[in-house]
Design goal:
alpha+beta; 479 residues; 29% helix; 4-stranded mixed sheet; disordered N terminus; 5-stranded mixed sheet; 24 strands
Amino acid sequence: MLRTTLTIFLGLLGLWLCHDVYGQTNELKFQAGASTSNITPDLGIEIVGGFVPYPATHVHDELHARCLVLNDGKTKLALVVCDLLGMHRSVSVEARRLIQESIGISPEHVLISCTHTHSAGTALGERRYSSDQELSDYQRFVARRIADGVRRANNLLRPAEIAFGTVDVPEHLFNRRWLMKEGTVPVNPFGKIDKVKMNPPSGSSDLVEPVGPIDPSVSMIAVREPSGRMISVYSAYSLHYVGGVGDGHLSADYFGMYCDALKRLQRNGEGDSPFVAMMANGTSGDINNINFRQPRPRKLQYEQMRTVAEDVAEKVNRQIAELKWSNQAELAASYRELPIEWRKVDESLMAWAQTTEAKGADVNKKADTAPIYAARVKRLSMASPETKAPVQVLRIGNIGIGSSPCETFAETGLEFKKRSPFKNSFMVELAHGYYGYLPTPRHFELGGYETWPGTNYLEPTASDKILAALLEMSRNLQQ
């Protein structure tokens, strides 16, 4: 009798231990939790979206780190998207250290990326061409708020179902690198003539054709409670940013507006565990929202970004209704720091920088950027010995997410999707660091803004090396 009673007690205890606070069995069952952290800086911080930083004087909409934690019963992954132009590698290192310290998720299992809004405070620091740096007060604040957000998402883990989907929204995407009629490409800051022009005059008769593709797909990973109530949608779209903000305004751009719009479309999106929408930047280093074939119409402040955000959110929400859900998804991750070299500064380029800096700006030119690039070239020549360029692949069931720390061209993202061993794949840029633009070797031959030393930080074959590493890591995770 005593043995029977003890057996029953142990059995009941085991059942109780396998139940979470929602009263549902969670042993080896898929779980998800999502949260947001406010990362809006103090007014006065420098906004770094243009050539020359300027102080923030107003907050139009708050900036956030949006966080999603997934748990398959054995492994946890965390995905974070920050409303920042970019962040230095050291910010990601510190945030992931804090996450591991507080809730035990390995740094290799945390993906932190930035949206590339051009109207946010800077988390880049003073030493962009250095792999490590001492963090500023705002950078430490961002790292802590990321860690807090992931911790809160982890607190909200509950049984979940997961689905993957895509929807094409090509109407907002335009490749911004154009071939022009011979003799119409202006001299660049280095005194040379490129074969292509970035952001050419809209509607100009000198336009020939864009030199690269767009990636029209919004990729989405959706998670919901078994009851059907949505928890989060992690999405990625290859659109650089939209812009059109007020002077000195802090804003999350269309990325934040999309998240708000998608939340409004959810039934029971509020509550103690509110729905969290997330929009990562795909591979948009050569893509923006300007239709160069037509003259640019005048828009009110925030009008165009709201148009884009609400349209994309509506199409994503419509696609969510068509998704096929599963209560299982095996999780894994792979992280590397590649020994890619910084962009070389040869003797002739250094001589140009010194001469240009000594002359100063040309008062006859409305926007003489040569002195700005001269200063960038000199700083690039003093880069740290190693780049420690971070790349990462997350496996979420049959989904593979590859990351790049650069403003990556659309064709690299398309190539990853094509060659990845996963059934469903996409890339996220500006992850774990900011290493400038990532043109392909073909684009280095064409020249243009994204290939100039100072906007491009890495060697000309960097895109090939990053893509090769991501594909190898994906194959290893798929085995």
